[in-house]
């Protein structure tokens, strides 16, 4: 997803404000008009001494097209005279039929409109239609009041659904998070326990080995001493000759054994005495962190404020709604409404961003969150907002020699091939009242004949938009109107520069002939925080304009949106 640099705020004027509906507290009411006592239709007819007209006066649930003013059926012209003596029946649709202001309400016209039908000529009176006016008016007010209440009920249902769904999602998130946290903590504790047990095993093995060696040496000495004692006892108990020989052998063995040499056994204070050092304060530390871990916010600190459609894009604007929250960065995500996955499209400190590569007439969902000053975690997401663009994306003309286009044809790159003139848009898709934006991605060698701008029509044979019926800016910042260079200039175009055109109609029809035109447009060209405003005279009116560019050296790359 390629998105434009939003370092400069633009007033584009074509947006859908996403403010929430006004909330009413308990017991709210909205007066549609002063309350007036009204008579029922039956009471009015009885009071006039007339028979109630047959038929249905109103139909529940069908809103009136316009309020029907009071009118008296009278003899208006020959047709009216012919209708004298006829009793009229009000047809069901009469109560919801429009009577435009000033329309003739004589009997023939009302009959022609299908409001009345002739039943008999027995009565010599006409139905006084004026009696029905209060009923019509009251019914209109009731219908309007009911519609307003229905809309507010729908708003309440949506608000209730948002609260219920967000509460359910929050519960699930909390449960999942703390379950994951418990699992992670248990795993970390088990790993730490294994590490400590391994340390115990290592110390035990390393310190017990010398003791084992000493034990073997002592046991060997004990066995040798026992053998020597037994041999000495046998030598003493033997005969004289045999005794001398055994004594000699005993004395020889005893001389080879150092009976006065004993191995050194370490004192208990000199050998390890293992123990576990466990700081119980960690429980308090963990407890404090756990008690402070996580918060439940009734509403996010930022909300999307406005979505503005652009050709092939949507400008998203958001604002901070929590005065106590200091935002350091914002994070914007979007997705198609048919997708289940949001993707990041912007992270930064700005509060607006244009998301490009938007398909026309396709609903997209946007949400934003913020990161507090000095914090690492992101805030809760804003309430997702749905927007779409009905505007046709701007595209450069494909197959034009000297320029390479991106897949969506909204980026043009001046290549090394010979150029045959101006690269125009594929169609006149720029309309007055919109903002046309060019962003220069890369630059090449500038030339005074370079141009970026708009024109009334395509004209082949020109190598620049510095011609009649066109306005443009050169890469050196010079501004041209109908081929004439203006005195005021803009800064030179550099890599990353954004050039915007705002055009609006000033006058329609003929102007002073000395001015040389009969259609005037007011043009504002902005670049690098500076702008020029001028009137552009055309030979004839035009509802839409072409845009174009021309570069004489390769390396220039321009995005249009």
Question: Can you describe this structure in just a few lines?
Answer:
With 561 residues, this protein is of the alpha+beta class. It has six helices and 24 strands. InterPro entries: FN3_dom, FN3_sf, Ig-like_fold.
Describe the structure.
The protein folds into 4 domains: 51-127, no CATH class; 168-292; 302-387, Immunoglobulin-like (Sandwich), CATH 2.60.40; 403-560, Jelly Rolls (Sandwich). It has 6 helices and 24 strands. It has helices at 41-48, 77-82, 107-112, 133-237, 240-256, 281-292, and strands spanning 15-17, 87-90, 116-120, 302-310, 313-320, 327-336, 343-348, 352-356, 364-372, 385-387, 403-405, 411-414, 423-424, 430-431, 435-442, 451-455, 470-473, 478-481, 484-489, 498-507, 519-527, 530-538, 544-550, 557-560. A 7-stranded antiparallel sheet has the order 11-12-24-15-20-21-22, with no helix packed on it. A hairpin with a 2-residue loop joins strand 18 and strand 19. Helix 4 (133-237) packs antiparallel against helix 5 (240-256). The relative contact order is 0.09. May play a role in the negative regulation of cell cycle progression. It comes from Bison bison bison. Keywords: Coiled coil, Cytoplasm. One of its GO terms (cellular component) is cytoplasm.
């Amino acid at each position: 997803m390629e998105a434009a640099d939003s370092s400069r705020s633009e007033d584009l004027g074509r947006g859908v404000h996403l403010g929430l509906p006004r909330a009413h507290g308990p017991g709210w009411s909205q007066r549609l008009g002063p309350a007036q006592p009204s008579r029922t239709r039956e009471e009015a007819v009885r009071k006039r001494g007339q028979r109630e007209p047959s038929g249905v006066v109103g139909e529940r649930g069908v809103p009136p097209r316009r309020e029907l003013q009071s009118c008296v059926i009278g003899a208006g012209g020959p047709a009216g005279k012919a209708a004298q003596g006829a009793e009229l029946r009000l047809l069901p649709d009469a109560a919801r039929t429009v009577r435009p202001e000033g329309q003739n309400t004589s009997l023939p016209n009302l009959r022609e409109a299908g409001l009345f039908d002739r039943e008999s000529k027995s009565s010599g009176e006409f139905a006084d239609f004026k009696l029905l006016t209060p009923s019509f008016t009251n019914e209109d007010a009731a219908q309007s009041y009911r519609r307003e209440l229905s809309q507010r009920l729908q708003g309440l249902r949506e608000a209730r659904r948002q609260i219920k769904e967000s509460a359910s999602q929050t519960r699930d998130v909390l449960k999942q998070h703390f379950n994951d946290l418990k699992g992670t903590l248990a795993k970390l504790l088990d790993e730490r326990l294994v590490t400590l047990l391994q340390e115990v095993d290592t110390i035990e093995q390393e310190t017990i080995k010398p003791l084992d060696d000493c034990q073997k040496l002592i046991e060997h000495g004990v066995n040798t001493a026992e053998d020597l004692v037994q041999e000495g006892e046998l030598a003493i108990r033997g005969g004289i000759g045999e005794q001398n020989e055994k004594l000699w052998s005993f004395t020889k063995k005893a001389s080879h054994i150092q009976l006065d040499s004993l191995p050194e056994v370490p004192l208990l204070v000199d050998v390890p005495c293992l123990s576990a050092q466990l700081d119980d304060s960690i429980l308090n530390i963990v407890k404090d962190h756990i008690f402070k871990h996580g918060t439940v916010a009734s509403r996010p600190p930022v909300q999307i404020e406005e979505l503005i459609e652009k050709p092939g894009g949507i400008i998203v604007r958001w604002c901070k709604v929590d005065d106590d929250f200091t935002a350091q960065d914002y994070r914007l995500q979007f997705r198609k409404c048919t997708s289940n996955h949001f993707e990041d499209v912007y992270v930064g400190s700005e509060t607006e961003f244009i998301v490009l590569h938007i398909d026309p007439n396709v609903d997209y969902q946007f949400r934003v969150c913020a990161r507090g000053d000095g914090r690492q975690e992101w805030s809760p997401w804003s309430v997702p907002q749905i927007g779409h663009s009905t505007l046709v994306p701007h595209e450069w003309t494909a197959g034009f020699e000297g320029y390479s286009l991106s897949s969506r044809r909204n980026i043009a790159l001046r290549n090394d091939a010979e150029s045959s003139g101006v690269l125009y848009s594929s169609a006149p898709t720029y309309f007055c009242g919109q903002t046309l934006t060019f962003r220069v991605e890369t630059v090449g060698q500038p030339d005074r004949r370079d141009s970026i701008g708009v024109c009334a029509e395509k004209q082949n044979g020109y190598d620049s938009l510095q011609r009649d019926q066109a306005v443009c800016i050169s890469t050196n910042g010079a501004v041209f109107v109908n081929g004439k260079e203006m005195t005021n200039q803009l800064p030179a175009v550099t890599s990353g520069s954004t050039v915007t055109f705002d055009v609006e109609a000033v006058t329609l029809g003929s102007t002073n002939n000395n001015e040389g035109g009969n259609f005037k447009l007011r043009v504002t060209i902005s670049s690098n925080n500076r702008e020029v405003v001028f009137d552009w005279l055309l030979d004839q009116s035009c509802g839409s304009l072409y845009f174009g560019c021309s570069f004489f050296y390769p390396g220039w790359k321009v995005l249009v949106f």
